[in-house]
């Protein structure tokens, strides 16, 4: 198990992606019910803001919010980062459809907004860097050498009050290992 390292400089967050596993489908399955919908919404906002920060034409249909948030800055730094967040958002969208019995043609409105982006235009933007970087640890005081460990600590300790999974989803098996008791 990774070691816990406290950090206080970020404070509360308004948007987040919960990187609970490198396998994005598994990460989405482990989200509490409340984060399934909010992840689709919040990450969609980050995705549309990140492309606009890199020159994608602004429009009233696209979200633009939290441009200085660590997740937005990370997504805007490279097309590979943006694609990783897009894949996470798609996985959470599929989990949203599953968990809340949405049909195969139903789409979360925020995901519909992301899907309106022209993929060629997004790819051809002048991204500041190339390559995939590890996502930022937007986990308050819960940090670790590995971002997945940091998010597991954060989830097991700070999000415990939200623990609720519907259908056949249940508490991730790693929660006891990452729970810190005083």
How would you sum up this structure, described in words?
This protein has helices spanning 24-30, 33-53, 70-77, 79-99, 109-115, 119-123, 147-158, 175-178. By secondary structure, it is mainly alpha-helical. It has a domain at 24-137. The longest helix has 21 residues, at 33-53. It is globular and about 50 Å long. The protein starts with 23 loop residues before the first helix and ends with a helix. Mean pLDDT is 92; it is low at 1-13.
Describe the secondary structure blueprint for this structure:
Elements: H1 24-30, H2 33-53, H3 70-77, H4 79-99, H5 109-115, H6 119-123, H7 147-158, H8 175-178
Helix pairs in contact: 1-4, 2-3, 2-4, 2-5, 3-4
Q: What would the principal axes of the Cα set say about the shape?
A: globular
Largest sheet: none
- Given as residue ranges, the uncertain stretches (5+ residues, pLDDT < 50) are 1-13
Could you give the count of β-strands? Answer: 0
The computed structural class is mainly alpha
Could you name the key traits of this structure?
globular, mainly alpha, disordered N terminus, single chain
Summarize the structure.
The chain is an all-alpha fold. It has eight helices and no strands.
């Amino acid at each position: 198990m990774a070691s816990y390292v406290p950090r206080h400089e970020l404070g509360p967050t308004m948007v987040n992606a919960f990187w609970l596993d490198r396998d994005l489908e598994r990460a989405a399955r482990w989200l509490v019910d409340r984060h399934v919908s909010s992840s689709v919404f919040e990450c969609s906002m980050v995705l549309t803001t990140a492309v606009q920060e890199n020159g994608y034409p602004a429009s009233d249909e696209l979200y633009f919010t939290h441009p200085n948030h660590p997740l937005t800055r990370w997504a805007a730094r490279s097309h590979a980062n943006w694609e990783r967040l897009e894949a996470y958002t798609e996985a959470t969208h599929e989990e949203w459809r599953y968990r809340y019995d949405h049909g195969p043609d139903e789409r979360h409105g925020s995901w519909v907004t992301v899907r309106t982006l022209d993929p060629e235009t997004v790819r051809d933007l002048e991204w500041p860097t190339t390559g995939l970087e590890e996502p930022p640890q937007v986990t308050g005081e819960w940090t670790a050498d590995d971002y997945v460990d940091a998010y597991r600590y954060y989830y097991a300790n700070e999000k415990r009050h939200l623990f609720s999974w519907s259908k056949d989803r249940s508490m991730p098996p790693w929660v006891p290992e990452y729970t810190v008791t005083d």
